[in-house]
């Protein structure tokens, strides 16, 4: 009798970290499997550790190798950490993509805004609908989250049903879209769920995430009470929050001015897909200065401190159309993502120095998370009754706490894995059965680099200790044709004794050249290496840091 096909799971991003989500499911045997990919997201570069790197993406080398067996890519929702890598990475895969209407429309708008974006077809699946992707039958189950049309995926296979939650929460009173489909999730639980692959973002927080309806009420109260101009910043993709701000503006007899390209794009897509039906038309930034101060509300991008976004430019007083003055208010209707605290703090401080009142989630309920807290995690487990739970979408602490909660809730098997682990889900005992290549790709300008990239490593070193450049012109006889040129970048001008570093380095270069025999001076490589070592040594002696040093030897 033939053995049944194995169902396996491997996270290639989004486990042990928040962001860069990519999960793959395989059906078959170890010699040949059909693969299904879920989400393809980014995380964002950190200027301190990755200077110049805009985006970080999962390494898809395994999927490239398995391209002929990759049946498709299914999107849970249209947040950047779940779909932001598609434009860059899809050309390496060229597989079918499946998404619901809003996600597909936002992706199309994103492609239209990018220079030279490839043509990427997306098959639209109705919310609550099902689609066959090779041997996988994928069901889109509506869940509440901070963007329209977020879905958990019930992946139906001959080996059993897997529930891949995506990002979700239980919100009985969402202001946009349906609540999480408890009825359908309970039905799946009665059918039998082999594995629950679940969001762990808020697994350390007790209780339940508050509802969007409570935030909407708070924003109305704050906008009505405001005296001067009001600016609200939030995640552009949070259409429910955009609607709440619009309702608050209307209640306070204010016009909404949309500021920032990302916000304009989402508003346009939300209108086209019916999510802002009945919401008043918004105004463009050009009219902002012509409206009375108590009749205007600016809805801005930049809640995460992005230096080129609208709010940062307003805080620096260099936005061409939008200004704020003493007595005006800024509402941060968002949570600061870990790593962005300094950038957001800088904007807040600039605004405070200008006499502008700041309201954050520390002052009022102006933001709620789109992720489930501990009581909601328990509810989902009780509805779905999984045989196995694997926590994903979280750092080590989040995964650990989610696993502990699942064990306490009576889940028969709980397994914590890492990016690259190949996990057998069934049939039979689950467990980690192997490893697939995983890692990171860095988007550096328009180029994708891997984590061993020379550019990434060297730029990090240069950010820490500058760089020394030395140019030497030698004759064919091994004599200096002219004085060496020294250029020091990012290195202090003087040492503690007040001596110029330019002079110290120049002397080190000259003494090294003079100390070499003529035969070595005639060989550019044999000359460059001792000069490089001498320059690094003298800078280290006087500064305590060894910068990269580039020596160029020209024979004339």
TrEMBL record:
Keywords: Cytoplasm, Exonuclease, Hydrolase, Metal-binding, Nuclease, RNA-binding, Zinc. InterPro entries: Metallo-B-lactamas, RibonucZ/Hydroxyglut_hydro, RMMBL, RNase_J, RNase_J_2, RNase_J_b_CASP, RNase_J_C. The keyword Nuclease applies. This is Ribonuclease J. GO terms for molecular function: exonuclease activity; metal ion binding; RNA binding. Residues 21-219 form the Metallo-beta-lactamase domain. The lineage of its organism: Bacteria, Pseudomonadati, Pseudomonadota, Alphaproteobacteria, Hyphomicrobiales. It comes from Bradyrhizobium vignae. It comes from the Bacteria. Pfam families: Lactamase_B_2 (PF12706), RMMBL (PF07521), RNase_J_b_CASP (PF22505), RNase_J_C (PF17770).
